[in-house]
Every structure is written in C-alpha cells, then in structure tokens.
Write a structure and sequence with these properties.
Length: about 475
C-alpha cells in the first residue's frame, strides 16, 4: 500500500470512471433508440450527462426528499457523494488534454497560407466571438446587474459558454471561484448546454431554409439532406469502417496509445512551465507594483494548447520516424471530450440556475440572437464565395462545439466542393489561441474583475469592429 493514499479514495476514482462509462453507454443506447435525438444529432455524452443529472441529487434526490423519503439511500440520488466529487474535478483535468491535442499531429502552415485560404472565415468567426463579449457585457451593464444584481463578470459568460463550450466553461470554474463568482461555473455549463441544443436545432432549420431559398449553393434540393440520415444513428456501416489511427510504434516497444498519452503529457508540461513562468514574471514586475494579478487567474488549458504547438514544431523538425499520428490523437481528444461533457452535465447545479433563471434566459437569448444575426446578415457580406457553407460552420462552433460546426458543414457540403472544411480547419490556428477558449477567453474574467466591464466592452467593441470591417470591406468585396 502506498503511504499517504487512502485506498478507498483510489478505489472510488476507479469506480467513478467505470460508472461514467456505463452512463455514456446508456446515453448511446438511448440515442440509438430515439429517432428524435438522432435527427437532432444530440451527442450521446450530452444524453448520458442528463441521465446522470436526473439520477443524481439535483433531481431524483430532491424528488425523494419532496415526497418525504428523507432517510433512504435515494434521497441523495443513486450516486455516492464521493463519486460526484470526483466527477466534479474531471472537466478541469480533461480540458487540458483536449486543448493539448488541438494541434498535435496537425501540419501547421505559415500565417500567409492560413490567411489566403481561410481569411474570410477567420474574420467572420472573430467578429462573432468578439460580438458575444460586446452584447454580453452590454446586457449585463444595462439589465442584469442593475435589475438582478448579478456580478458584472457575467458579461463574459456568452463567449465562454457558446464559443468556448463545455470544456472552456468547466476549465474556468477555478477562476470563477477565485474571483468570488462561483455561481458562474454552473451558469456557464448550463449556457453551453443550451448552445449545443439550439445550435443543432437552428442549424438544421437554417440548412432547410438555405435549400428552399437557394442560398445553399451546393445543396440543390432537400433530398441531399436526407442522404445524411445514415449518420443519424451514429453507427458506421460495417463495410465503411476504417482504422481509428495508425500504429506508429511496435507494441512490444511501447504501446502507440501510451506514446500519444506521453506526448500529451509533455505538451501539458510545457504549458504548465510557460504559465508558471508568466505568473512569476507578473509577480516580480507589474503585479507587485499595481497589485493586479491577471495571469495568476488564467487556467492551464490555453497554455496546454501552446505547449502542443511547440511540441508539434519540435517533432516536425526532429522526429524523423513520424511517430505521432493525428487520427489517434483525435480519438484521445474525443474520449476526453465525452468524459468532460458527461461529468460536467452530471454535476450541474440546477439550484444555481434556478436562482438566476431570468438572467440565464436573457444571456442565452442574447447569445442565440447575435449568432443568428451574424450568420444571416454578416455571412453573405463577409464571405465572397460559398458563404452559406462556410459560415454555417462558424455558426455551429459559435453555439458551443467545433463538432457542431463540422457536422453542419458536412451536411451542407458532403463532398467539400466549397473548401469550407479546409478553411475551417486552418481558421482554428488563428482563432483558438485567442478566443473560443484561448488566451483572451481565459483572461476575460480577470480583466472584468480588475478593470470593470466598461473598459473591456470598449476593447471588445474595437476588435469586433476591426474584424467586421475587414470582413465586409476587404474580403467581402473580393
């Protein structure tokens, strides 16, 4: 027995993952049996998370308390409190894995090539992201803080939740806690859930609208959308199945999956060293002089992404055997995202959302309306060719998940004849490091805390106008 480690705690960690796996499997089975959930392309992780939420203390437990069964084991839900505590910590851990894998195994081209191939999509995506800050902070200043007494830091929640998604919302939990706005963790996770649900629903509606009105240049009639029904179950035909990744090393030497986990560990380690170095610099320079410590509140995950880029550049130059496989890295990323979403939804506090229901609804409505306006009116003005196919991806991503954007683009253009998918991939290289979970996303809450909402609003508005003007007057006129 290892000294200092509670064997019961270690056993509970293992049991927590086993139960989480069963919850995910049940989510998948429910999706396979539900044509409605299939048509809406709701991820199994989201379904499993809601199932666990229902069986936990927030719903089933309170139901038993309400009917008077206070002393039964179900009065706290079917999951032990220790298990829920472990699930609560998982999103903050797995978000670093997800961000470390974003660019590992991916060719990183020069900025000039990225700009040439994906410039309009970059401008459009950046405008949406900064607009989420602008309208989120505006509605907070004008309505939420004066009438509902909500913390001004709520102005960042739309971008954190919609553009960043569950991973970013969960990763920011410690920052919210440190800055005295702990309710924001559950509010942002709830908003991220709303974003995914309405992102897919409105995405399908927009696709049908694009077909009927002729705005979708690739899809000529509604029958093209029905071709994607085979994707709805989420089961790949037996004859169409491919390998999940290339085996780059012999297992007797090192298991390829183990090697890729090791690469992720190195990337996160590089990010940790960078973050600690920046915190130290801040502490001995402007932090000591001004008592403002922004970097001390930035979570690890955006630095893990930078660590992944540095590691990939190193491997490009020195790994002559090319031992890192992108497809295998994507499988690790997908596993981490499923665990993150399921555990985050399972431990969501409905009490916090209920106590802030009106501000929650207002923030969700503002975010959805802005994203729809940016798609319908800015998309055709900023993207000169195949605007519908390219901006539908930005819309899906801006509602909470990069996967949603990819899904909508694949439905809109199955053969990628518009090159929307390629541009969307290149766009992430100049998008993810800044917003959608990047450096500014992580710094936005500390900035609001130290400087207040007005300076951050002015900064966000200037950057939004810059990207919007670049898209409309430069790319849009080409």
């Amino acid at each position: 027995m290892l000294r200092g480690i509670d064997p019961m705690s270690a056993s509970m960690v293992g049991m927590s993952f086993l139960v989480l796996g069963m919850v995910l499997l049940l989510g998948k089975l429910i999706r396979v049996m539900s044509p409605t959930l299939q048509r809406l392309f709701i991820p199994s992780s989201l379904i499993g998370g809601f199932l666990a939420l229902f069986l936990g203390p927030e719903l089933l437990g309170k139901l038993f308390l309400w009917i008077g069964y206070n002393d039964t084991f179900l009065s706290g839900g079917i999951f032990p409190a220790e298990m829920l505590d472990i699930w609560t910590t998982l999103p903050g851990l797995f978000i670093s894995i997800i961000f470390a894998t974003l660019f590992l195994g991916k060719e990183i081209p020069g900025i000039r090539n990225i700009w040439f191939l994906a410039g309009p999509q970059i401008a459009h995506g950046q405008t949406i992201a900064w607009g989420q800050y602008v309208f989120g902070i505006l509605i907070t200043i004008l309505v939420l803080t004066p009438f509902y007494g909500i913390n001004p830091m709520a102005g960042a929640l739309i971008e954190i939740s919609f553009e960043g998604g569950h991973g970013t919302a969960a990763g920011m939990a410690s920052t919210f806690e440190e800055l005295g706005f702990s309710d924001a963790a559950d509010l942002s996770l709830g908003l991220a859930t709303v974003g995914i649900l309405f992102g897919v629903i409105f995405g399908i509606i927009l696709l049908n609208y694009g077909v009927r009105t002729g705005k979708a240049a690739v899809l000529k009639n509604a029958d093209h959308i029905s071709l994607n029904e085979r994707y709805q179950t989420g089961i790949i035909d037996f004859d169409s199945r491919e390998s999940a990744g290339k085996i780059t090393t012999r297992p007797e030497s090192i298991e390829p999956l183990s090697l890729h986990f090791a690469y992720i560990g190195v990337a996160i380690g590089i990010g940790y060293i960078i973050l600690q170095g920046l915190i130290l610099i801040e502490k001995i320079t402007w932090g000591q002089a001004t008592d403002i410590y922004l970097l001390a509140h930035i979570p690890l995950f955006p630095m893990a992404m930078i660590g992944g880029v540095i590691l990939q550049k190193f491997l490009d130059r020195f790994d002559v055997y090319q031992t890192l496989d992108r497809d295998l890295m994507m499988r690790i990323q997908g596993l981490s995202l499923d665990i993150l979403i399921t555990s985050a939804i399972a431990t969501l506090s409905l009490t916090v959302i209920g106590n802030n229901l009106i501000p929650f609804i207002i923030l969700a409505t503002v975010g959805i309306v802005w994203n729809l306006v940016a798609f319908m009116f800015l998309g055709p003005k900023m993207i000169p060719s195949y605007w519908f196919e390219k901006s539908i991806g930005n819309f899906g991503q801006s509602m909470g998940m990069t996967a949603s954007g990819l899904l909508l683009m694949r439905i809109a253009d199955p053969a990628d004849s518009s090159s929307a998918l390629g541009g969307f991939g290149y766009k992430q290289l100049l998008f993810e490091p800044i917003v959608g979970g990047g450096i500014f996303t992580a710094a936005s809450v500390p900035l609001l805390f130290y400087f207040g909402p007005v300076p951050v609003l002015i900064l966000a508005a200037i950057i939004m106008i810059f990207w919007g003007g670049l898209g409309i007057f430069y790319f849009g006129r080409k």
